[in-house]
Design a protein that fits this description.
Elements: H1 3-7, E1 9-20, H2 45-48, H3 59-71, E2 75-76, E3 79-80, E4 83-86, E5 96-99, E6 106-114, E7 120-132, E8 136-138, E9 147-149, E10 156-162, H4 169-185, E11 198-208, E12 218-223, H5 226-245, E13 253-258, E14 263-269, E15 279-280, E16 287-288, H6 291-299, H7 305-315, H8 320-327, H9 330-339, H10 346-364, H11 375-386, H12 392-405, H13 411-417, H14 426-439, H15 441-448, H16 455-465, H17 472-485
Parallel strand pairs: 12-13
Antiparallel strand pairs: 1-10, 1-11, 2-6, 3-16, 4-5, 4-15, 6-7, 7-10, 8-9, 11-12, 13-14
Helix pairs in contact: 4-5, 7-8, 9-11, 14-16, 14-17, 16-17
The chain binds adenosine-5'-diphosphate and magnesium ion (MG).
């Protein structure tokens, strides 16, 4: 496709994200909710949908849904009902899914993402509702048969439906990244797309630039990474534009993404789509969410990535890059927060976290939770650098490695043992200055006749005679003063 053809069209994208909740038990039974258990071991008669069994609401799910709703600034419905979504499939033993149809718990929210130019943009969240997962059909484990694992059946899900506000595959990539960050900060979902605990269906259409009506949307499923969501959307945009250019009409259908080939393949057309025959779930009472309940959840809300990002940017004066880097992972952000409880040098603390600390973790494949040095000692290290007691290079090259070996020892103490405490005592430094001036009369004469760059030479000599322990800033100042005053 030529760039001219491409530029005639505008893509429109809306995403439906399913997040598996990190609850101990399933949505409507006491069966354990865990990934990777021996197949079909976490299945009671409720999960199997035996006649006469009754579902029971897991309160934790409601709590998690409220957390996410608050984080997205959604409205939270005071009263909700459950519905049955009926369809037949081997991994759905009840023959229906318990979901929320007309009364989702959250409506009218928003998530802020970056657009292609790096500007902020609000993506509307149409709704977030609670439902349950189906079991898992495995088509590639056995040569002849499809195997079914019902451990996943009944696992609580939140479905997050966006408005068709996204305009490019990059925006969609940024959006899913943001959703994943959010559910991880809220500790309601582990966000692992490879294991399927976060899944995304993409609705994609194209229209001519400036058109007043959206084109017909196609839904694409089965992307197991955020990168693949982006690739699937990119492929789909091109496919639709090429079809329209050929005079074809886009059919409303569901397609599947083939990650190996990087293409989407038609699964079923809208005509063949299920009629789910939703009706109210008679076995679960409506849920009431009181204002008090919402307030109590608000009190337990962890810090949100965006709140921290804005604080670092606006209050701490960090760059956007730094603020993003620090808030990418909640654990890193919280460690940074711990450091700055004890020092006001925000940029210094950011540099240590993003520099020496992250390199140490990366080299050893460790998480920040496994980092041996307490945040307080990092803050102390920063303070003794700022006080001119040790140089930054002594800090990174000598004191920090020693701290890794002796994480509980005060860095000042280690600096003493390592003999890297700088002398900022003016009298002591002045003695070194005088010694250097005495030893190099020729250079002094050249300096005085205008070769001011020789100050570097004198500083080198000073560091030599002081064995590197003179505070460079103080020494530099005294050296210049003495040379000028001669
Ligand atoms: P359906 O009734 O087919 O489920 P919805 O209106 O509920 O469709 O929308 C499902 C998803 O599709 C939402 O995320 C929405 O933003 C998105 N969507 C709706 N219309 C379009 C469109 N024309 N192009 C792209 N995405 C769309
Ligand atoms: Mg819909």
């Amino acid at each position: 496709m030529t760039p001219e053809t491409r530029s005639k069209y505008q893509a429109v994208i809306g995403l439906e994200v399913h997040a598996q909740m990190l609850t101990k038990t399933k949505a409507y039974s006491n069966d354990i909710n865990e990934y990777g258990a021996v197949p079909n071991t976490n299945v009671s008669v409720i999960t199997l949908g035996h006649p006469g069994t009754l579902p029971k609401m897991n309160k934790q799910t409601i709590e998690y849904a409220i957390r996410l709703g608050l984080a997205c600034e959604s409205k939270i419905a005071p009263e909700q009902h459950f519905a049955r979504k009926n369809y037949f499939y081997p991994d759905l033993p009840k023959g229906y899914q318990i979901t929320q149809d007309t009364t989702p718990i959250c409506t009218e929210g928003q998530i802020i993402v970056k657009d292609d130019d790096g500007n902020e943009k609000s993506i509307g969240i149409t709704r977030i509702h609670m439902e349950e997962d189906a079991g898992k059909s495995m088509h590639d484990v056995d040569v002849y048969d499809t195997l079914v694992d019902l451990n996943r059946a009944g696992v609580p899900l939140l479905e997050i439906v966006s408005e068709p506000d996204l305009r490019s595959s990059q925006e969609a990539y940024n959006y899913v990244t943001e959703v994943r960050k959010l559910v991880r900060y809220l500790e309601i979902c582990d966000g692992n797309m490879e294991e399927g605990s976060l899944r995304c269906d993409a609705n994609i259409s194209v229209m001519e630039v400036g058109a007043s009506e959206f084109g017909t949307k196609v839904e694409v499923k089965n992307m197991n990474s955020i990168r693949n969501v982006q690739k699937a959307i990119e492929f789909e945009i091109s496919r639709q534009i090429e079809a329209i250019e050929k005079g074809e009409v886009i059919a409303q259908e569901t397609r599947s993404f083939d990650a190996l080939k990087g293409i989407t393949i038609s699964m079923r057309s809208k005509e063949a789509a299920n009629d789910y025959r939703y009706f109210p779930e008679p076995d679960l009472l409506p849920i009431e969410v009181t204002k008090e309940h919402i307030e109590s959840v608000k009190k337990t809300m962890p810090p949100l990535p965006r709140t921290l990002f804005l604080k670092y940017l606006n209050e701490f004066g960090l760059s956007e890059y730094d603020a993003n880097n620090l808030t990418d992972s909640k654990e890193i952000a919280l460690f940074y927060e711990d450091i700055i409880e004890h020092t006001k040098n925000y940029k210094g603390a950011a540099n240590w976290v993003m520099g020496s600390i992250k390199s140490f973790l990366n080299e050893r494949g460790l998480e920040i939770s496994e980092f041996p040095i307490p945040a307080k000692n990092i803050a102390e290290l920063i303070t003794i650098i700022d006080d001119g007691k040790i140089s930054s290079s002594a800090a990174t090259q000598k004191v920090f490695p020693a701290m890794l070996e002796n994480p509980q020892t005060h860095p000042a103490k280690l600096a003493e043992t390592l003999n890297v405490i700088q002398d900022s005592n003016e009298d002591a430094i002045l003695e070194f200055v005088n010694e250097v001036i005495k030893q190099h009369p020729d250079e002094v004469a050249r300096y005085r006749s205008g070769e001011k760059q020789l100050v570097g030479f004198f500083m080198g000599q000073l560091m030599r005679v002081s064995k590197g322990k003179a505070d460079p800033k103080a020494a530099n100042q005294l050296m210049r003063q003495r040379l000028e005053a001669l």
